[in-house]
Automatic annotation (TrEMBL):
Biological function: Catalyzes the hydroxylation of the N(6)-(4-aminobutyl)-L-lysine intermediate produced by deoxyhypusine synthase/DHPS on a critical lysine of the eukaryotic translation initiation factor 5A/eIF-5A. This is the second step of the post-translational modification of that lysine into an unusual amino acid residue named hypusine. Hypusination is unique to mature eIF-5A factor and is essential for its function.
Name by which UniProt lists this protein: Deoxyhypusine hydroxylase
Annotated residues for binding of Fe cation 2: H219, E220, H252, E253
Gene3D superfamilies: Leucine-rich Repeat Variant
Organism: Ciona intestinalis (Transparent sea squirt)
Length: 313
């Protein structure tokens, strides 16, 4: 009864999107599109509907549902996200994304929960919580008033960019790969390089895909390269996706990044890995091929023409 009421409160398009998102027989890529449109609509009802789909049989969709809850940035998502983080039977990729989403919402009330999991036995979860704790503290301190290099993308990130005074690509790259620094400071250098948003800063960033110390860090580098959509990083992303020993969270982000860069080489690679043994990688290639098609389609031209909001992030 309650669910029916909440669906009816959404507009007609949202009702269709919720229907599509919750339809486990629909194509994964269609459910993805529905999810990202709902994310862009945002608000309490979208949070309710997205939360209701958690947990789905697709691990990949699950983590994206959690990601979108963080990006909508509403406190209403906190109970669901907290329950996911606490449940050690759930997958690493989902628990990581739930912790990151809690950090994105950035409420001081979440601090003690996040702190409890900073030493989680799953390394990716522990590191995500360490970053989230630092971000929430930063957000609620006077440091967050200091000017940073502005973000040209619409994402809420696990760390802010670095100071607006440092736009020196080689010094930022040095910080990026310096394992003596905290992950938070290396992330800040990463987001500075992303926000500079040039071919040169993308090449500097792609070196981070070689940092063997943290799979979480490498997956974030791949994600950020997907946002930048610079074709000069296709070889590095292809190499990481092709490395069967690489962590599946990293390979997943590389696949999606290649989908959004959407060149002919990207198409070839994604076709090659769409039958990968790992389900998350396989499904990522399926979604990435849909992103690639979208990037090259007439709809994208319309979107650019009318400058409407972004469909897939
Ligand atoms: Fe992630
Ligand atoms: Fe992801």
């Amino acid at each position: 009864q309650e669910n029916t009421t909440s669906i009816l409160n959404l507009g007609n398009i949202s009702v269709l999107l919720c229907f599509l998102l919750s339809n486990t027989n629909a194509k994964l890529s269609d459910r993805y599109r529905a999810l990202f449109m709902l994310k862009n609509i945002g608000g309490k009802d979208a949070v309710t509907e997205i939360s209701r789909c958690l947990v789905d049989k697709s691990e990949l969709l699950n983590h994206e549902l959690a990601y979108c809850l963080g990006q909508i940035n509403s406190d209403h998502a906190l109970p669901k996200l907290s329950a996911i983080l606490k449940n050690k039977n759930l997958s690493t990729i989902l628990r990581h994304e739930a912790a990151e989403a809690i950090g994105a919402i950035g409420s001081l009330e979440s601090l003690s929960l996040l702190q409890d999991y900073t030493a989680d036995p799953v390394r990716e979860v522990a590191e995500t919580c360490q970053l989230a704790v630092t971000r929430v503290k930063w957000l609620n301190s006077s440091d967050s008033k200091e000017p940073v290099i502005p973000n040209p993308f619409s994402s809420i990130d696990p760390a802010p960019a670095g100071s607006a005074d440092n736009r020196n690509i080689s010094s930022l790259q040095e910080m990026l790969v310096n394992t003596e620094l905290s992950l938070f400071d290396r992330y800040r250098a990463m987001f500075s390089l992303r926000n500079i948003n040039s071919n040169e800063s993308a090449t500097a960033l792609a070196v981070g895909l070689q940092c063997s110390d943290s799979a979480l860090f490498r997956h974030e580098v791949a994600y950020v390269l997907g946002q930048m959509q610079k074709s000069n990083t296709v070889p590095q992303l292809t190499a990481s996706l092709s490395d069967l020993h690489e962590n599946c969270m990293v390979r997943h982000e590389c696949a999606e990044a290649l989908g959004s860069i959407a060149t002919g080489d990207c198409l070839k690679t994604l076709e090659e890995f769409k039958r990968d043994e790992n389900t998350v990688v396989r499904e990522s290639c399926e979604v990435a091929l849909d992103m690639l098609e979208y990037e090259n389609s007439i709809y994208k031209c319309y979107r650019t023409m009318f400058n409407s909001s972004c469909l897939i992030t």
